[in-house]
Amino acid sequence: MRWLKAAVAALSMLGLCGAAQAEDYPSKPIRVLVSAAPGGVLDILARSITERLAKDWNAQFVVENRGGANNQVATEALINAPPDGYTLMVTAEATMVINPFLYTHLPYNPDKDLTPITGLASVSHALVVRKDLDVKSVADFLALAKAKPNTISFGNFGIGSTGHLNMETLQQMTGIKLIAVQYKGAAPAVNDIMGNHLDAMFIAMGTAEKFAKSGKVKILGVGAKARFPEYPDVPTIGESVPGFEAHSWFALVGPAHMPKPIVDKINAGVAKVFAEKEFQDKLLKPQLFEPMVSSQADFEAFIKSDAKHWKAAIDNAHVKLE
After folding, report:
1. DSSP secondary structure string, 86-134?
2. pTM, whole model, 2 decimals?
3. Which CATH class is domain 27-123+248-317?
4. 8 Å CB contact between 141 and 200
């Protein structure tokens, strides 16, 4: 029984140490890795959150963009950092629920190498088409695609990206056949669809609406569960394809084995930021972000559930990368 008593004592000491660390946290600058290039929605979200946490905690944050390899560059930097709460990462869903099923050789295991802290926000994707394509609705688009298989092109900004997998899912659910055009990112694909060189693609609804207002693209539908109150005339794709949704989500994570009291303190700090009306009015509403801040336990349960969806999408699309 001595070993059991010793183990219990050691665990108690670890808990006390973690609690003491949380009281003093943060006592030095916090590095926040962003798994995307500067200027995108993920970068904007990360900088907006850290700016407010810096004020609330009277702390310094250093935001470091480490885009590349479908979030793997930033993730490798994160998992090699000490799990003391002073290196965190703002990343997209691919890190946890897409890459594990997409790559045959992944340099990390999200279940063993990461500490989920909280979800941040989700964003629904809109199905947009070039302005001259002779369709006005999702039903029109599907009818045209069925009448002319393998003639309509769609922008694929990375194999395994949500833009790619969402369109693959739509094809699987409806039986249409489209032509994938590969791009090195969403921006060049958007430029081509506005220039009438590309037929269709999925992009974030907030971005799509800006281009649609200027007449550069047409929005056929949005992959949300319900219509946006701000845009009641934009139908959901699910109204034509029951059960279809298209979205991305973003999260805050740390290296494995972070002390629970520090995780809880960060989680509470982020929740406070998201509850601020100014933050909601200046960032969440204009970007059409849906908040998904929750307890760590609830976020972990969400990850497990969403992983099943993306595994099925990847299996059905028959895609695999080294």
Report:
1. SEEEEEETIIIIIHHHHBSS-S--HHHHEEEEEEEEEEEEEEEEETTSS
2. 0.86
3. alpha beta
4. yes
Q: Hey, how many other C-beta atoms are within 10 angstroms of the C-beta on 22?
A: 18
Identify residue 296 by its one-letter amino acid code.
Q
Residues in the chain: 322
157 phi and psi angles, rounded to 5 deg: -95, 55
Burial of 101 (0-12, 13-18, 19+ CB in 10 A): middle
CATH homologous superfamily of 124-239 equals Periplasmic binding protein-like II (3.40.190.10)
pLDDT in tens, 58-78: 999 999 999 888 899 999 999
Spatial distance between the Cα atoms of 170 and 321, rounded to a whole number of angstroms = 21
Query: Angle at which helices 260-275 and 2-24 pack, to 10 degrees?
Result: 30
Closest Cα to residue 162, out of 41, 18, 271, 301? Answer: 41
pLDDT digits (tens, 9 = 90+) for 6-43: 545 554 555 555 566 688 999 999 999 999 888 888 99
* Closest residue by Cα to residue 282 from 61, 103, 47: 47
The CA–CA distances, whole Å, from 110 to 63, 70, 117 equal 22, 14, 13
Sign, CA dihedral 148-153-156-159, equals positive
Contacts of 119 (CB under 8 A, 6+ apart): 249, 250, 251, 292, 293, 294, 299, 302
| Gap between the Cα atoms of 122 and 120, Å rounded | 7
Q: Count each helix (H run) and each strand (E run) in the chain, helices first.
A: 13, 10
What is the rounded distance in angstroms from the CA atom of residue 64 to the CA atom of residue 89? 9
Phi and psi, residue 198, nearest 5°:
-135, 145
Distance CA 54, CA 42 (A): 18
Q: How many C-beta atoms lie closer than 10 Å to residue 316's C-beta?
A: 14
Within the chain, all domains assigned CATH 3.40.190.10 are found at 124-239
